[in-house]
Amino acid sequence: MATQDSSAERYIPLPNPESSLWHRVTCCISIWIFKLFVTTAITASHFPLISGLPWLPYNPPTFTKVYEQGLTNRVFVPKSWKSGDPLLPLYIDIHGGGFCLCSPHIDDRTCTELSNNNNLLVVSLDYRKAPTNPYPAAVNDLIKAINSVLDDESMPFDRKKVAVGGFSAGANLSLAVCQDESLQGKIGGIISFYAPVDWSTTTPDKLLTRPSNAGKDALENSAPWFNWAYVNVGQNLKDSMLSPLYAPSNKLPPKIYFLGCEFDMLCKESELLAERLAKERSGEDIAPGDVWEKGGIKWEKILGEGHGFDASPALGEKKVRVEKRRKEMLESAAAWLFKEVYVSKI
């Protein structure tokens, strides 16, 4: 089961072992079929006749931006903002997709809502995907992209009010990039939505951390595919840029909001990271709970939901419930940003 190593054990390297030929072939075929399906769906969603359908709202960015990495990033300026207005707080979004799938386009709705509802400049970044570009390609791409955004004088944001966040793989990458030396002191906070933060624990062991009534996990079948695609054989699984569970507290921003889903096999590892950081920063033990704040760290467990619940297809009563919880989650995240990050001096 997922457990927090002692301080001494935390930094002992754990090389990624080579799997069987059958496992490698199965993962390779599965991930490429999955990529083809998702890429086709995303491409189709760009067409106006499809993207304008009621169940697939069309939320285009204000404009797109390409930096030296050659990747297209999406920029969302609040509709109420006009030239000459005060500079905006900046939220940098990193999309999910198991490090293998999707593009910033999938977060358009979220970015549009965050921008317009909270008067934020939101920049949604792209990165190269596995398996053709395994770790650390995405991390390196995003470090360069974030520095490019921060150096871009045409962007109307306050350099003292900067946060990064993402969903799933995007949350992992948010926690990874902020450890880089070039970004130290530049990022005020992170919002981590249901992140994978520990590659040193196996999928079967992670599944054991879920409640008995959780049902089948959304990642149970696909997690091995993503792991094979993203992490090379021999890679240290305790590398903190891969597994932020092992990140030194002083390398991360002063404020971090972790959200986990109760029925998600990734929930426990995010909770363990939140508890360790809060204890190290406050010098106090953390009492277990579904919601707590201490030492600049906030933890929230979304009860009764699984991984990616807010992005999964839903109908009827389930859709109403999911939309309500999604709205509450984003409102809570925005409120935390203004309470903890956008008032802080970096």
Automatic annotation (TrEMBL):
Gene Ontology MF annotations: hydrolase activity
InterPro entries hit by this protein: AB_hydrolase_3 (IPR013094), AB_hydrolase_fold (IPR029058), Carboxylest/Gibb_receptor (IPR050466)
Annotated ranges, domain Alpha/beta hydrolase fold-3: 93-280
Name of the molecule in the record: Prolyl oligopeptidase-like protein
Organism: Calycina marina
